[in-house]
Each structure stands twice: as C-alpha cells, then as structure tokens.
Amino acid sequence: MFSHALLFDMDGTLTNSDPFHHEAFVEFGKAYGVDIDEPTFLKYVSGQANSLIFKNLFPHVAADSHPRLADEKEALFRRLIVGRLKPIDGLIDLLDWAVERKIGLAVVSNAPRPNVVDMLAQIGVADYFHTMVVGGELERGKPDPLPYLTGLERLGVPADKAIAFEDAPPGLKAAHAAGIVTVGLTTTLDAATVKKNGADIAVPDYRAPELWALIDRVLGN
User: Is position 35 annotated as part of the catalytic site?
Assistant: First the structure.
C-alpha cells in the first residue's frame, strides 16, 4: 500500500502525557495504599501494558480485579488530560511532510484504545494516521516486536523502509527487535538510556536536525 512508513508510539512520543499518567496513578494509588513516586513510575509504569503494571504495583489486590482497576485509572487519566495535552514540538510539521509524500503513518501503542483515541483527538492529529495498533488487542504487546510487525504488515511496508518513534524501554526494544530504525524521544529518559534500549538516535523533539538527516537517509525523500 505504501512504499515507506513512520510508526509512532503514543505516550511520551506524540505528546508528553506521562506527567498526567503519573498524576492519575498517584491519586489512584492512594486509595489502595500504593505510593507511586517518580522512580516507581519510570520503572513499573512508563511504556508498560496495564496487565503488567497492576500485577507489579497492586499485588495485594485480587488479580481478577485488575482489569476493573485499570479501567478506573484510565478513565481518571482521560479526565485529567482534557484541554491539557499538546503535540511534541515539530510533530505536525513532520506529519504534514509525510502526508505530502504519501508515507504510511501508524500509531503503535501499549495504551488502551480509548486512551489512544482520546489523546489523538486532544492533540488534533487523529486524521493523519492510516492505522492504529493496540498492543493489548494482540497476542503479545511491547516489548515483543509483534505490535510493530503488525503495523508494518497493515501498511504494506518492509522494516528497512520505515522509522519508528519511541520514548520508553518496552517500545524501544520492540521497534528495534522488529528491525526498524528507531528514534528515541528524550521526553522521559536521557539520551544514553534511550540508546541503550535500542534507539539509533536520541532527539528532544521532531525539529532536531539529526532526525531529518536520518529520515533523508532511510526514506530517501
């Protein structure tokens, strides 16, 4: 369908939403006696699927209640982000550039579908994307490469003609394992850490000159 593709994680990659996830988890955790400070958030929450988050942070709550708790936390998150999210600097310019060149665009996220839909709408980019891959709807989510491989399959693009954008270890590892050149956004971690987890380059936003040099090299546009 497309000759080239850009695949984006959602949280921390299209928008810096992690502060709002942390805010939601702090508030939610208090009700269950769990203190979710910043180190705990980075280790057990950022980029992880809810099934693993609640297994690690709420082991004292019956496992069969975890899906309900996750739904409650995500509903709180969606209330917190209303009118507060904005796209990462330079994102809209990159998406416009890709549309002009008929490049396939995908969102590949471990977040629940309602979150992804709401966040895309909040930052005004929903109409840019050709497909949305939700890790929780597949047999395996990130850090397994399956979500990225699924995105490539849906767009009809081989891995060597694509670039992935990520910010957290599970996604960085997933994209790298899928054989995709990977850009690490330093929204939540420093450059050395994102590179250690699989990023080919680390950038603060989508305006970075080294990003555009990479795009020219990989996509040849």
Answer: no
Q: At residue 159, does pLDDT exceed 60? A: yes
Q: Which of 11, 118, 167, 200 is catalytic?
A: 11
Q: What's the domain range around 26?
A: 18-80
* Confidence bin at 46 (pLDDT 50/70/90): confident
Say how many C-beta atoms besides its own lie within 10 A of residue 174's C-beta.
30
Q: Global pTM?
A: 0.92
- Is 66 in the same domain as 103? no
Look at residue 221 and tell me whether its pLDDT is greater than 60: no
Same domain for 12 and 25, yes or no, is no
pLDDT band at 49 (very low <50, low <70, confident <90, very high): confident
Options 9, 18, 167, 200, the catalytic residue: 9
Domain with residue 124: its CATH number is 3.40.50.1000
Cα-to-chain-centroid distance, residue 163: 14
The total domain count for the chain is: 2
Strand order in the sheet with 162-166: 131-134, 104-109, 5-8, 162-166, 181-185, 201-203
**Average pLDDT over every residue of 25-40:** 92
User: Any catalytic annotation for residue 9?
Assistant: yes
